[in-house]
Amino acid sequence: MASYKIIIAGCGHMANVWADYALTRPDSEIVGLVDIQVEAAARFAENKKLSCPVFTTIDAAIEATDANLVFDITIPASHYSIASTAMKLGCDVFSEKPLAESLEQCVELVQLAQKLGRTHAVMQNRRFDPRIRALRQMITDNTIGTVGFASADFFLAPHFGGFRDAMESPLLLDMAIHTFDQARFIMGANPVSVYCHEFNPKGSWYSGNAMALCIFEMSDGSVFDYRGSWCAEGAPTSWEAAWRVVGDKGTAIWDGHKEPYAEIIKDDAQHGKFLYEYDRIGSSVLEMPLTFHQGCLANMFDALSQGTAPETSSSDNLYSMAMVLAAVESARLGKKIDIRTYLTK
Ligand SMILES: NC(=O)c1ccc[n+]([C@@H]2O[C@H](COP(=O)([O-])OP(=O)(O)OC[C@H]3O[C@@H](n4cnc5c(N)ncnc54)[C@H](O)[C@@H]3O)[C@@H](O)[C@H]2O)c1
């Protein structure tokens, strides 16, 4: 008998990868589908050859089935209501990003999961990439020494059409959660403050601000600098962003395409020279059996079965969300935001 009886809430585009993963697990069974557009749920059931019932609300689905786990793959505006209802009705929740739309909602969800003893985890698929793990390993191995600075460049020009073209802060609210969460992972530090300048460059086809420059002070005294654009034609970066991490012994580079490497001061460098010479060090990119969405989902299931916190639990994800929401607030007010007090407001 399956240990995990899953309801999929939100049967749109992203639900495919989640359902396909669940169907590979012998310990899991999809027992219900929910979508406010019932025909989307019915179509999804047919495409995936699922015989489970379909519903239009999460409460009705949980009450009518013996579900104990909800995949929340609805739109961001529904994450708070789906997760809070599901947790109150006895289910653990694995959710697509973002955790929720406002800081108040994010904090409430984290507190609710703690109070009820539920697992609530958020999809941060870009952490489950062998190359970002290799970059992180270079930092923890002290290859470049103590990190003082990291930067991420993100320059792309996707012509989405649809809701992103009309949003107020499409880059910060829809995409930067990935890059900010990557920064916390790479640096092993949490945010302390942010100053953000958000704007919409001439020629942008977005109504809202498609570009943002952010400076974050981090908990270990280092600084993370983000330069991002969703309307930069030509010379695109990777969707993983292009990274430079500077330590007191050298610099690690990851362009988001190839494998990371570092350049560090040669062992026999003569002190007192104007410029030192460097050795180039490759990174150890290890095979990961499951990557991206599948890797993150596998981590969530492992943690649930072992009674431990998933790497991307909502209590951890709160810090990445705070980076996004405080950056928007900083841009709106035109001043630096203290993220620690922002989090306890
Ligand atoms: N991790 C990633 O790389 C990544 C990529 C794309 C999208 N996403 C996220 O995945 C989520 C879903 O995105 P998508 O592209 O699949 O969107 P989508 O519009 O294709 O699908 C969302 C579905 O949710 C349904 N829905 C909306 N509100 C609902 C509610 N209250 N109850 C039940 N169903 C509801 C809609 O009817 C729709 O069928 C979003 O949070 C988005 O940010 C993540």
Q: Report the end-to-end length measured between terminal Cα atoms.
A: 45 Å
The low-confidence parts are none
The proportion of strand residues reads: 15-25%
Average pLDDT reading: 96
Into which percent range does the helicity of residues fall? 25-40%
Order of helices and strands: EHEHEHEHEHEHEHHEEEEEEEHHEH
CATH superfamily of the largest domain: Dihydrodipicolinate Reductase, domain 2
Bound compounds, each kind once, are: nicotinamide-adenine-dinucleotide
Per DSSP, the total helix count is 11
Task: Could you tell me the CATH topology label of the largest domain.
Answer: Dihydrodipicolinate Reductase, domain 2
What structural category arises from helix and sheet content? Answer: alpha/beta
**Biggest sheet record:** 9 strands, mixed
Total E-strand runs: 15
Side by side, the strands of the main sheet go 14-13-12-11-7-10-9-8-15
Estimate nothing, just give the exact number of structural domains. Answer: 2
Specify Rg, calculated over alpha carbons. 21 Å
Instruction: Give the overall silhouette.
Output: globular
Question: Under the CATH scheme, which architecture of the largest domain would be assigned?
Answer: 2-Layer Sandwich
Q: Please write the CATH class name of the largest domain.
A: Alpha Beta
Q: How would you describe the overall organization of this protein?
A:
The chain has 345 residues and is α/β, with parallel strands linked by helices. It folds into 2 domains: 119 residues, 3-Layer(aba) Sandwich (Rossmann fold); 182 residues, Dihydrodipicolinate Reductase, domain 2 (2-Layer Sandwich). It has a 9-stranded mixed beta sheet with strand order 14-13-12-11-7-10-9-8-15. The protein has a 6-stranded parallel beta sheet with strand order 3-2-1-4-5-6, sandwiched between helices. Helix 6 packs across helix 8 and helix 8 crosses helix 10. The termini are far apart. The structure holds nicotinamide-adenine-dinucleotide (NAD).
